Amino acid sequence: MVFSTYLFLFAFLPAVLLGYYALPGLIKPFGPSVELISRSRNSFLLVMSYLFYGWWNPWFILLMLFVTAVNYACGLAISRPGVSARGRFWGVTAAVVISLSTLGFFKYWMFFQTNLNHVLASLGADGLRVLQITLPIGISFYVFHCLSYTVDVYRGTAPPARSFPDFACYIALFPQLVAGPIIRYNTVADQLVRRDHGWDKFASGVALFILGLSKKVLLANPVSEIADTAFGAQSLTAVDAWFGVVAYAFQIYFDFSGYSDMAVGLGRMIGFEFLKNFNSPYLADSITEFWRRWHISLSTFLRDYLYLPLGGNRKGPRRTYLNLAVVMLLGGLWHGANWTFVMWGAYHGLLLAGERWLGKQSVYHRLPRPLRVGITFVLVLFAWVLFRSETLPDALRYFGCMFGAGGDGVGAALLAAQLYRRGTLLLMALCAFCVLWPTQAHEWSAQITWPKALALAPAFALALMALFAQAFNPFLYFQF
Question: Residue 263's CB: how many other CB atoms inside 10 A?
């Protein structure tokens, strides 16, 4: 089930809200204070979240339930009174190994077998039969959620869950289940027991959800046609190639930030407060700052659970560069089992290490900020070519087109007729305006007034009408 469908908007979501607030357990529904949450409400959310997730394939629920049970059991073993340090270590190790092995098998086994066959073929040996494995939706996200719980309990930075249904509710909670943001257990542990339900918070959630839906339906989906046209063209000029990759930069931003806004908005409707996942990333003036603004939940997760345990910047410059490279390589691989994602991560790791090597007093940092923002955006565009391309040869071909090594007269004219229509130019201008606008959806929706509510009404109506005209278009990060 997808947020941007009529089934979700007019059937699933109303059923969740009506059932949630009809159940007993709140001291004062929509009251001004933080209220104790009954287990029945969390259990109801758990059942509805399983229904939401199982809509694609009910068998996927069993896999998620297995990973959830393993981490819950390991958390209990770690937090048991009197357990030795050795026992706690083996408890967290078991959770990490089992969880990552599950993720590795379903996400990377085919990738491993395919590349092994290439090696065998180069040696003149027969290849192995590749086992076809269906990738469960959202497995990368819920595995990270499970691991954050077990590791936080091991570190003592989060309490053990009060019950299995509560913990399972945290893992399966439908707003953030399939595409994040990555919600760490220690940020919502208290909210699983008590959370705030008020009209202001509910209205803020509705507003943020509408803004996210508008980003997805009115911006990301239409601009994706421009990106698909450019990346699917057999030949294109340098201008066409740059136009296409900028369109993809807009698409992935509005698609993913739109989903994150919708997830946070849905959370607010049921009393949860999730952290902001995007903060004007295309206004960053360095790659380091870009990763403080883009997919914030992933970058902070990798920092706290991988970069810092590896030593961070505490073991000298060379080790710091190596740690950055390892973290970004694994971050790229996390996005998908493809060499394009590996190279995307390696590219970002190289840029981060290079910025660290230059230091904050370099010539680059003395440039005017608008120029630094422009340079950073261009560097990010090169990365998006790797991210969008199906294969490395496709990426190299597109890079060549960006620098004038592609395009013929007839083909270029036909492509230009598709890319530079008045509607597409207006759409790209609108996307650029929204990207540069300093006020973010989170801040805008923090307090809802009647003028804001009146402004949201036509945006919601336009989004609903656009759903009639558009084909099914799932969120990009569903595949990760």
Answer: 27
The residues near 337 (Cβ < 8 Å, ≥ 6 apart) are 107, 108, 110, 111
Structure tokens at 35: 């209220």
Two tokens, residue 199: 């009209």
Q: Tell me the torsion sign for CA atoms 461, 463, 464, 468.
A: positive
Which three-class secondary structure state does DSSP give residue 393?
helix
Element (H, E) at 328: helix 317-335
pLDDT in tens, the chain (480 residues): 788 888 899 999 999 999 999 887 554 544 544 556 667 888 999 999 999 999 888 889 999 999 999 999 999 999 888 888 899 999 999 999 999 999 999 998 888 888 888 888 887 787 777 778 888 888 999 999 999 999 999 999 988 988 899 999 999 999 988 777 899 998 888 888 888 888 889 999 999 999 999 999 999 999 999 999 999 888 888 899 999 999 999 999 999 999 999 999 999 999 899 989 999 999 999 999 999 999 999 999 999 999 989 888 888 888 888 999 999 999 998 888 899 999 999 999 999 999 988 887 788 888 999 999 999 999 999 999 999 999 999 999 999 999 987 766 566 777 777 888 898 999 999 999 999 887 888 888 888 888 888 989 999 999 988 888 776 666 766 666
For residue 62, the SS3 value is: helix
* Contacting residues for 157 by C-beta, under 8 A, at least 6 apart: 186
Q: Up-side HSE of residue 471: CA atoms within 13 Å toward CB?
A: 2
The answer to whether residue 335 is catalytic is: yes
Among residues 455, 427, 435, which one has the least CA distance to residue 258? Answer: 435
Is pTM beyond 0.85? Reply is: yes
Catalytic residue among 197, 335, 348, 442: 335
Distance separating alpha carbons of residues 170 and 160, to the nearest angstrom: 12
